[in-house]
Amino acid sequence: MKGSEALRATLPFVAGGRPDTTHDDPDAVAITEARWTTLREALARAVRRQCPRWLSDHAEDLVQAALIKVMAISGASEGNRPLSSFYLYRVAHSALVDEIRRRQRRREVALEVDESEDRQGGTIEPRASGDPEQDASHRELGVAVRGCLMSMTGDRRRAVMLYLQGHSVPDAARLLGWSAKRTENLVYRGLADLRHCLRAKGHTP
Amino acid sequence: MTTPEPHDVARFREALARLADEPGWPEADTGRVFSALHGDMRPEQRRAVVDELIQNPQAAAAWRLARELEPREPTGIFALPWRWMSMAAMLLLVIGTAWVILPQQSEAPAFRGGEARMIASLLPDDVLSRTEPVLRWTGLEGARYRVRVLTPELELLDEAEGLAAPEYRLREDILAMVPAGGRILWQVEATVRGTSAVVSLTFNTLME
Fold it and tell me: Where do the CATH 2.60.40.10 domains begin and end in chain B?
């Protein structure tokens, strides 16, 4: 996982809570402002490290959206919630996903991920879906694949699902807490189950 | 898999992904999905999230997005402070461990000048009860405390500062992140106005 080290790094101290500039003590105001500046910088780093290039022109807006999320959550927890770097990455991610979905809805296009492209070049930029017939065919097959997965035994189902999500066997093994050998067996047998189930539903793999 | 991917897998993958375009699926919890993929979630919790991906194609789409938006490593000189912080934390642990072990092996010092200003854990047997999850330490007069709680992998779990009392209660959501029998590392920094800060050893505590 490329970014795991960055996520594990501990954050320079950032306190939660709304900025309170109504305070009479100028020192307290300065400390509060300094903390929020630190928080904003940390969020900007988190956004920069996740933001696809095609959205990078809007990075400032995304930082602002993430900051608002943190303020809302801090307000709900009465300002006492300590913020870890992982938490801030999570909030930044949420702001990014909201923006991507908003664009997806607005342009009425499907979100496609082309793994052959470099992310810096914008792999997750929304693009138009295929023709209606092909869409219908995919939809039908998708419903059948999902139905078959749901009918599989637990561990095979999970191994195949991660494989279909694009994870390699070693990566799926790490995520699921199993050995690579076991995961490979589960994927292999799970795919066989899936093909068998699809054939029974009238789909030719 | 070491063998080439079967030709039909790409079709299954695309067909499954397209389901998320259909209306009517519940909104996915993107934060939970992000934590499952990039956080330190336990495998059994992660498996539950994977089950959700099958149940809810929106969650599967959120997973793919979280995978695609995986945070990049900081590069160049900006990466150095993070690495130095990790190394410093590790060094601190080593020194802390040596500090605890070595005095037992050496003779007592011939004399001791001035008041010893050090912070010690007051947890019995270095075990923390889940029913009373309060970290306690020896206090210094007039001090304010900052406490940091980390996983054994040195990931920050919790942090608080400006504490007037030499104790800190762990919140339930933090406790939930530590399995029974797991360990936490914690460290206290005491600041007394007009004097230098006193930093404790890193305490290694067993969670009940």
Answer: 80-102+117-207
pTM: 0.56
Instruction: Give the number of residues written for chain A.
Output: 205
Measured between beta carbons, the chain B residues lying within 8 angstroms of A145 are 12, 15-16
Q: Which two tokens stand for residue B184?
A: 């936490």
Count the helices and strands in chain A (H runs, E runs): 8, 0
Q: Which residue has the tokens 């870890």?
A: A84
Predicted ipTM of the assembly: 0.72
CB A126, CB A107: distance < 8 Å: yes
Q: To probe the interface with B, which of A88, A97, A113 has the most B CB atoms within 10 Å?
A: A97
Q: Which of B7, B38, B49 to mutate to test the interface with A (most CBs of A within 10 A)?
A: B38
The values of phi and psi at residue B140, to 5°, are -115, 140
Do residue A96 and residue A165 come from a single domain? Answer: no
pLDDT digit string, tens, across residues B95-131:
665 555 554 444 433 333 334 567 888 888 778 988 8
